[in-house]
Design goal:
The complex is a heterotetramer, with two copies of chain A (329 residues) and two copies of chain B (328 residues). Chain A is of the alpha/beta class and 329 residues long. Helices cover 37% and strands 21% of the residues of chain A. Chain A has two domains: 9-189, Rossmann fold; 200-326, Rossmann fold (3-Layer(aba) Sandwich), CATH 3.40.50. The relative contact order of chain A is 0.12. Chain B has 328 residues and is of the alpha/beta class. Chain B has one domain (7-37, 45-314): Rossmann fold. The chains are: A alpha/beta (329), B alpha/beta (328). Bound molecules: thiamine diphosphate (TPP) (2 copies) and magnesium ion (2 copies).
Chain lengths: 329, 328, 329, 328
């Protein structure tokens, strides 16, 4: 059993699990529900074994009824529990949008201030040949609809620390994991919260800022390595929490580099990159030596064949090209 | 197996008169809402429940104050019967600072957790899973509370409703699904939206106890909800109640309620209206007389007047707090 | 009965109905479905009387099952019909998101090219005290998910002409009506298509460009009048079709005015304005004399009380202020 | 009232042998898919239907070529039985240019309208309303076509599935809801996701004809689907079929299929596997002998080999067309 306060090397998946377990130990109001999360331990094995420690009263397998059980979590959050829901694939959020957006995201505002302490964890993204209905990153929808905090960590330490904060938050938090990150490992200070609302400079540089998050952040770091080999020093800002957004952190980097490229795996139109670009050009117009460029998924559903999927999704090379374009090279 | 005696046999004369007062309170409250709407003081659509007053009155009486409730845009009566403050409710519906939700929610989004009210809803069936979650939470924490969720005959065709029925049944949750079968969803008669118009069959298919009854008989409503609540508290799982009723008004304030219904049909149900029937029974059984009823009625009217005086005196809600953002 | 080729003064609602009737006469594959659209003629009376002309085989009242009947429309569109669906409120699209985005928007791409000829008409927007669940403009979600054309007319003539095009299109089209527009009237050339994908200069001006659509476009025109009184000549571009987007039309105006304000009723974050601002600054960076500004709904659920709703939603005055801000006045 | 004779009495010896060939074809096809997956030639999750082969074979035989079909990620066998070209199907699953969808769809998104296939689906229950719409369209245009939609026992808890059942029933649409009740949804046993595990009750609640039967008996499957299709074509409205079956493999290629199921349970169902049972019956009834069966088996294998040769020879799909955008 992991103990709070120690530093361990964990995979992203283990770091998530450690945060859940920590909170379940600390606070008996924390309960878990989702499809196959209990007896099987989750499709990605993130909740494996929690039923043994906490019992099937606190770790609940649900029917394939995402609307229903997300709505249930809202009812539980309003009556003394702090549910953590697993939504097996980000893509499946679409069957539960009314409960997510018309119900739980609006409850605090509509009620004039009721707390809604719940977390929805999901897993998204491509690169696995899972095709159009199992590869999506839909965070933009969750940013457009006010009422949910949205978090998308890129490292085990952030996953752990941000999930701790999310479970302790009295607002609903949507927590995005990327299927390509689960196996990545890194040092995790157990029990160390990371604040929601703060971006983080993942790599320092002076020529250009790359803003990213989730798995694409890792690609951005690779792109920065490639760029460094070409003599370009990119600063990489890990946005981490998409709502609330730490615009100041992006601005601070931009004031140094005067060039910004935003990279993410979601579609471009009305995506996070569009949002950040619009905010940046509004607030930092005079700091920009070039337009803010974006590197996103092409605006088509994610195709199946490998060469097609590669053509649609971001890669370190594509990010690098976009950065060079931004720098006029 | 039905119990030897119906729960109503426990009701005292005060209880019986209280039920009448509750029916009349709701009528006066909704009449006043209509008047405020017509006077231009009340924004948006207003969904009244004229003719369905036995349901909130009976159900409210059968529940404990700490039991949970979710309901629809047509739920004013349930909120009142659950004990929500009349003045704060009127203020919310008029969009005032002292409203239940500070004027942010409005009449389709009444919340009052202190009285178990976890939300009215503008989305058909939208609040049903909330109630299932509250029931789960009650069961989990051993609170002994029951959740009542009220919805219409049209709502049973919304996916999330059916997902909720199944979840409640499989986990034997203490939730009462009260379907106000008023035979129409907006302007659509039941038979045009479902092949099996006896909705109890659908619920039974999920493995739930069901009962169908006269929703315009307040004592019957009381009995059925009391029995269901007792079964829930005894851990026997959810109960589906199909209450046969009718709204003698339109779907909302601008709908005359005809066109899709005949005058005769409406008149027939008007004759069966809960207040009328129950008043007849109370006097026939000598629990009270005309004067006694009149006294209850004027008490109700006075309470409504007072509530609206409070509400109308309440100022506009402050803008800054609302604009500051959605998070607590 | 309205006859193609004639010019009539119609309300927005009548113009929509005339387009549907025209297409139902012309093409027997066109069928209509939705809640209370047949016998009652629709909550906003747009389809009133069509059942009398076309019968209940072609005009169908549905149960309150938006996912179900939108999915049904997809099945019908794949097998020889051309369904026109009415979704009573834009807000209710959230209960049908999987069918909209995972199913019908992706079918053409996933199948390698099958046509999906269907139209979903909906009605959205605020200003009526309908509160958080009946006042939304959710077009951004529909722009983020590729696969649907998205149309949002602001006048009876455009409503008529664009709906004709939408019904004749072999792609799924999402057609947005605004509750505040139904009663507005104007001249309509019956039977005259308007092309999907073309913006339109609704008012000429030289000092600043205001880009807008739907009801907010009408507010933008009022703002332009107010500005004219102050000596500012605003050019107002009616975007009309949000996907495909006519970026060139915005660019052409911008090259004249060098100032752009985007006004819409949807939320700001990841909204249409963010998207357009990001595209404009990328393509027309050197044409911009000031940052692109946006005037959108505040990022909170639409509140009920009138003063609160007014504080959240756009108005001509607010658009005017934003324009002056853009011009540095 | 059941007909005097079961539809199977019409089947010729060729038909009977054809059913066996179809079962074996599916088995060989899926085994090859697994091999390609293990060899790294096939991307993503692969959901096989080992042990459930009687269902596609029997259902495909009972339908007309122009009848419609929607299905799940586990539907390869139905596509084959519906007449979809083996080679183009293999090519799609391998992500090649000559695939059914040009490599854009992949194995969870097989489309082939020429054979009535309106989509496999990666979303549980996602394709059910499509079939209802196709049935409506057929009824509307007087095409006389039936729509078959296939889904699992877990899918009945998804809202849109239940909305679809109700719509089909109220409009008496010619759609067959075929539920492959294989007792598990991923790793969750039926009893953990629904209180009433006899799903026929749920369907009956919507006002639909239902039948429950042995889904591992190909002739029974044929009979049931043929009867249902006849009822649909006669305008009697939708039919719900609950086929009791079992996947003797895991949920997907990386799931060993144990842990949540006992070895004994799996072995019990392996003994009841459709190919095995039907082969026994065919020889016992002297429709063929061991050599005859072996011939059918090698024919099937050859067809599969040929399909994969075609598929593996097909080039990568072109990128430009796909990137050009989503509209036709
Ligand atoms: C998801 C959704 N679809 C449609 C509507 C519009 N609508 C509001 S009330 C109503 C009818 C509901 O009928 P029923 O459930 O019988 O309740 P009643 O109004 O008769 O009390 C409809 C269709 C809605 N609010 N939400
Ligand atoms: C909406 C949705 N939720 C969850 C999933 C993940 N998932 C894929 S298959 C499956 C189990 C389905 O079980 P069942 O319907 O019984 O079909 P079977 O796989 O047994 O054939 C689940 C939960 C999904 N694809 N879609
Ligand atoms: Mg009703
Ligand atoms: Mg199953």
């Amino acid at each position: 059993m992991s103990v709070a306060g120690t530093l361990e090397t964990l995979t992203f998946g283990q770091a998530v699990k450690a945060a859940i377990a920590e909170e379940m130990r600390r606070d008996e109001r924390v309960v878990l529900l989702g499809e196959d999360v209990a007896h099987h331990g989750g499709m990605f094995q993130v909740t494996k074994g929690l039923i043994d420690e906490f019992g099937d009263e606190r770790v609940l397998d649900t029917p394939i009824s995402e609307s229903g059980f997300i709505g249930m979590a809202l009812g539980a959050a309003l009556t003394g529990l702090r549910p953590v829901v697993e939504l097996m694939f980000f893509d499946f959020s679409l069957v539960a949008m009314d409960q997510l957006f018309n119900q739980l995201a609006k409850t605090t505002a509509m009620s004039g201030g009721l707390p809604v302490p719940l977390v929805i964890r999901t897993q998204g993204g491509g690169y696995k040949g899972a095709a159009a209905q199992h590869s999506q990153m839909l965070e933009a929808l969750f940013l457009h609809m006010p009422g949910l905090k949205v978090v998308a960590p890129s490292s085990p330490a952030d996953a752990h620390g941000l999930l701790l904060s999310a479970i302790r938050d009295d607002n609903p938090v949507f927590f995005i994991e990327h299927k390509q990150l689960y196996a990545a490992s890194g040092p995790v200070a157990l029990g160390a919260e990371q604040p929601i609302g703060k971006a983080h400079v993942a790599r320092e540089g002076s020529d250009v800022t790359i803003a990213s998050y989730s798995y694409t952040l890792q690609q951005a770091l690779q792109a920065a390595d490639l760029l460094a080999a070409d003599g370009v020093e990119a600063e990489v800002v890990d946005i981490r929490t998409l709502n609330p957004l730490d615009l100041d952190a992006v601005g601070a980097s931009l004031c140094k580099t005067h060039h910004l490229v935003i990279a993410h795996e979601a579609h471009a139109r009305c995506g996070f990159g569009a949002d950040l670009a619009a905010q940046v050009q509004e607030k930092y117009f005079d700091e920009l030596d070039a337009p803010v460029l974006r590197l996103c998924a092409a605006d088509v559903p994610v195709p199946f064949a490998k060469n097609l999927e590669d053509a649609v999704l971001p890669s370190p090379d594509k990010i690098k090209s976009r950065v060079l374009e931004c720098l006029g090279k | 197996m039905p119990p030897a005696k119906k729960p109503r046999s426990q009701l005292t004369r005060d209880d019986l008169l209280g039920l009448y007062r509750q029916i009349v309170l709701m009528m006066r409250f909704e009449e006043r809402l209509l008047a405020e709407s017509q006077a231009g003081n009340l924004r948006g659509s207003l969904h009244l429940a004229k003719g369905q007053e036995a349901l909130p009155a009976g159900a409210g009486k059968a529940l404990r104050p700490d039991d949970y409730l979710t309901m629809t845009y047509r739920g004013h009566g349930y909120a009142l019967a659950k004990g929500v403050d009349l003045g704060r409710m009127a203020a919310e519906i008029l969009g005032r600072r002292d409203g239940l939700c500070g004027g942010q929610g409005g009449k389709m989004h009444l919340f009052d957790p202190a009285h178990g009210l976890l939300g009215a809803n503008g989305i058909v069936a939208g609040g049903i899973p909330t109630a299932v979650g509250a029931a789960w939470s009650s069961q989990h924490q051993g609170l002994g509370r029951v959740a009542l969720t009220v919805f219409g005959d049209g709502a049973v065709n919304q996916g999330v409703a059916m997902e909720s029925f199944n979840m409640a049944a499989v986990w034997k949750l203490p939730v009462i699904f009260l379907c106000e079968n008023n035979l129409y969803a907006e302007m659509t008669p039941l038979g045009r939206s479902t092949a099996e118009t006896d909705l109890a069959h659908r619920f039974a298919g999920f493995g739930m106890t069901t009962a169908t009854f006269d929703g315009n008989d307040v004592l019957e409503v009381y009995d059925q909800v009391a029995l269901a609540a007792a079964a829930c508290r005894a851990g026997k799982g959810p109960v589906f109640l199909q209450a046969m009723t009718y709204r003698t008004c339109g779907h909302y304030q601008l709908d005359p309620g005809l066109g899709y219904r005949t005058k005769e049909e409406v008149a027939e149900w008007e004759a069966k209206s809960p207040a009328h029937r129950y008043a007849g029974w109370l006097t026939k059984e000598k629990h009270t007389d005309k004067a006694g009823l009149a006294k209850l009625e004027s008490e109700a009217l006075a309470a409504v007047d007072q509530a609206f005086s409070f509400a109308l005196a309440s100022p506009e809600p402050p803008v800054d707090k609302m604009l500051a953002g959605v998070f607590v």
